[in-house]
Structure formats: structure tokens, C-alpha cells
Design brief:
The complex is a heterodimer of chains A (about 110) and B (about 110). With about 110 residues, chain A is an all-beta fold. Chain A is built from no helices and eleven strands. The chains are: A mainly beta (about 110), B mainly beta (about 110).
Chain lengths: ~110, ~110
């Protein structure tokens, strides 16, 4: 299993541009999450999904959109990029239906908006 | 939502020393994880430990769920242990959304 994969690893955007951060998992996990980490800080939840077709906002959703058309994929869309979105973005997944609530994290995408 | 606090914020050790990092949380949890973020930004999952004690080599962790705290022990520290250690917890019944602490920055010197 590849686990949780994210692409791209690095990206530089100009203010106002748009992009999609890709996240995929091959563990058949129902729950998926997007977090962002600003310099010197802990991670904060942007959006999450409890299954295909179901998404909900986390703590810091402004400026982002998500979709979940399949169990495997959970892309994060940035529209009209702003310098405040410069951050490292982590995707995570979690299986459901068991008593194990461990989240598995991807390697992250480092995004700079200038 | 759940609050997660870590202490100390910074720690400097000489190689070979032992240390204890603490994580306090404000609610009943179904998940408590410890992570190590290395200087290259990679987030490494150390322990999934909502209760009890686990050990992995020189690292061990204990969570006392009834008293709402967790401890991470690092023994015989090495320079490769440097980085930031995060504790993250999710409250029971919240879709397992993790709340992260602000981390403990550890520097191990020769």
C-alpha cells in the first residue's frame, strides 16, 4: 500500500491564481481530512469528509473548497490564492467501523503565494 | 472544542540525556497521537495512544485518559531526535477531527 499520497510536493502561486492540491489513499478509508500548518504553529483543520459525497468545514475553511466523488480521492481547491494561504498542507485518512481512530498522514504540500 | 496544551514549549538537551514531554487535553478522547516533525518538515507518526502505555525503542508514551494528560518519554537522546513534537487529540463523537497542540521544540546538542 502507498498509504496517503499528495501532489505536488511544492508549488509557488501568484496572488489570484487557482490550483488544486491532490490527495489520495489506497486503504479504503472513509474519513479524510485536510490540515494546514503555518510557520511555527500546529496543524489546523480546513475540511473533512466522512465518506464519498459528504464534506464539512473545519476550523479554517475560508478560501478553500473540497469535493469527494470517490472514496480514494479528496482534492482541495484554492480559488484566488492569497499570501495568507502560504502554508504546508497535509492530508490524512482514517478507517471507520473499528475502534481504531488513528489518522494516517501524507507527506505534505508546501505552497507559497507571492 | 477540545483544547490541547503542550509543555515545555522549548527544550535543549545534551546527547544522551532523557526528557519528558507533556500534553494536557480538555475532553474525553477517542484519539491521541504523538508526532515528530523533523527539520525538513516531515511529519512522523510516533504513537497512537488514547490510553495506556506503549514503547518503541528509546521512545515511550503514556496516556492517563481519566486525568486527561499524556506523556512522551525520550531516553538517551540523539541529535536525530531534534525537531518539533506535536500532540494531537480528537474528542469522542466529533468525526475524529484532530486538534493539535502548539508543539515542543527539541534541540539535542553534542
Amino acid at each position: 500500500n502507498a498509504g496517503v499520497t499528495q501532489t505536488p510536493k511544492f508549488r509557488i502561486l501568484k496572488i489570484g491564481q487557482s490550483m488544486t492540491l491532490q490527495c489520495a489513499q489506497d486503504m479504503n478509508h472513509n474519513y479524510m481530512y485536510w490540515y494546514r500548518q503555518d510557520p511555527g504553529m500546529g496543524l489546523k483543520l480546513i475540511y473533512y469528509s466522512v465518506g464519498a459525497g459528504i464534506t464539512d468545514k473545519g476550523e479554517v475553511p475560508n478560501g478553500y473548497n473540497v469535493s469527494r466523488s470517490t472514496t480514494e480521492d479528496f482534492p482541495l481547491r484554492l480559488e484566488l490564492a492569497a499570501p495568507s494561504q502560504t502554508s504546508v498542507y497535509f492530508c490524512a485518512s482514517l478507517g471507520s467501523g473499528t475502534q481504531d481512530y488513528e489518522q494516517y498522514f501524507g507527506p505534505g504540500t508546501r505552497l507559497t503565494v507571492t | 472544542g477540545i483544547q490541547v496544551e503542550q509543555s515545555p514549549p522549548d527544550l535543549i538537551l545534551q546527547e544522551g540525556a532523557n526528557s519528558t514531554l507533556r500534553c494536557n487535553f480538555s475532553d474525553s478522547v477517542n484519539n491521541l497521537q504523538w508526532f515528530h516533525q523533523n527539520p525538513w518538515g516531515q511529519l512522523i507518526n510516533l504513537f497512537y495512544i488514547p490510553s495506556g502505555t506503549k514503547q518503541n525503542g528509546r521512545l515511550s508514551a503514556t496516556t492517563v485518559a481519566t486525568e486527561r494528560y499524556s506523556l512522551l518519554y525520550i531516553s538517551s537522546s540523539q541529535t536525530t531526535d531534534s525537531g518539533v513534537y506535536f500532540c494531537a487529540a480528537s474528542a469522542t463523537g466529533t468525526a475524529s477531527k484532530l486538534t493539535f497542540g502548539t508543539g515542543t521544540r527539541l534541540q539535542v546538542t553534542l
